Structure formats: structure tokens, C-alpha cells
Amino acid sequence: MNRKAVSHLRRVDPVMAGIIERVGPCRFRVSDGGSHFDAVTRSIVYQQLSGSAAATIHSRLIALYGDAAPAPALLLGIPDELLRGAGLSRQKISYLRDLAERVEAGDVPLDSIHELDDDAVIDALTRIKGVGRWTAQMFLMFRLGRPDVLPELDLGVRKAIQREYRTRGLPSTERVLKIGKRWAPYRTIASWYLWASMDMKEAKPVPRQSAPLARAARAK
After folding, report:
1. Could you tell me the CA-to-CA distances from 41 to 24, 34, 38, 136 in Å, in that order?
2. Which residues of the chain fall below pLDDT 50?
């Protein structure tokens, strides 16, 4: 998918072509290890925490399962005291219990969620406490590998668009979607490049002589 997507993005958007030139090869990868349940559990644990702190808490949580694979019924059987001892806040414990209860009841069909279309996946996941649209979109992109997801609320995506497309202030949701429309059906890869452009140590905006290209791209 990556090579075809990059070729498409270069062709349809000169501004994105410049980003691709600076960033280099696409290193987008899907994380498909473990179960969907563990993936959603991990995303909840990682919310609003630094990577190292979240990784420590998640590893402690996994250790509470012993030799068994993480599963809803097992999580529901772990006392709150042990979950608190792993470093989870009361709020996150409530989120994880809601996740487990909904999966056990069949309200959120995690085992077969990969069979649903993007909108249905978002609808299912956002029934869970603590799981919003952004988290559901990250699941679509990095767990299910869906190629055409544009996280329009993501701050990194908005900041990258502001810099590269020279918008006045952070672009609105509507502006992000309008600019990103031409990237379909590979908006996931476009988003990855926007994030990567922000991560570059010496990332710079498009040169001023390229501004006409940027304006032409925005006008499309």
C-alpha cells in the first residue's frame, strides 16, 4: 500500500509532494500483535501519559493476567486494589471495566470488528467510556491498517497543515477535511507524513518560492 499511496499523494498535491521529498520513504507500519481487546486496553492505559510511564503501567497490568492472554472476563475478575497497585487511576479502571463489560455482553464486537467498515468501527468503539473519535481513528489506522483515515481533530495534523499549507491559525475541522479530500483513498499515509514532518529535528516550512504551488493546491 505504501508505495502506491506515496505515488498518488505526489501526483495529486504538490505541497504533500514536498513533504514526502523532505521526510523520505514511508515507514508507516501496522501493529497487529496480540488481540484487538489488548490493543484497546493499551490505548486507554496510554491516554494522557508519557510513553515510558504508560509502558510501565501496561506491563504491570499484563503481568496481572499471569500466563493467560488478556481477556475481558479475566480483567473483570481482577480486584480494583490490584489495578490501582499497577498504577491505574480510578477513572481508567472504570474505562477498562466498561470496555470489558461491553465486549463480554457483545455490545462491542471486538473479535469481529475488523469486518466492519470505518464508520461502524468508530461507532462501536466510541460506545466505550474513555474512547473518543481520535482513539477510534488511531485503532483504524495503526491496528486495522485502514488506508483512508484522516484524524481531523489531531493537533499534530492540524499544526502540520497550518505550517505547510500556510493557513491563518490552526485549521478548522472543515478545513482539514477539505484540504485532505484530494489525498483519498490514502489519507492514512498522508497523515503519517504530516506527523513525520513535525517530528523532523530541522523541519522547515515549504520555501517561499513554492508558495504559488501551495496556493494552487489549496484552491483545488
Report:
1. 33, 11, 5, 12
2. 202-203, 205-220
pTM: 0.85
All structural domains of the chain: 2-29+150-219 (1.10.1670.40), 36-142 (1.10.340.30)
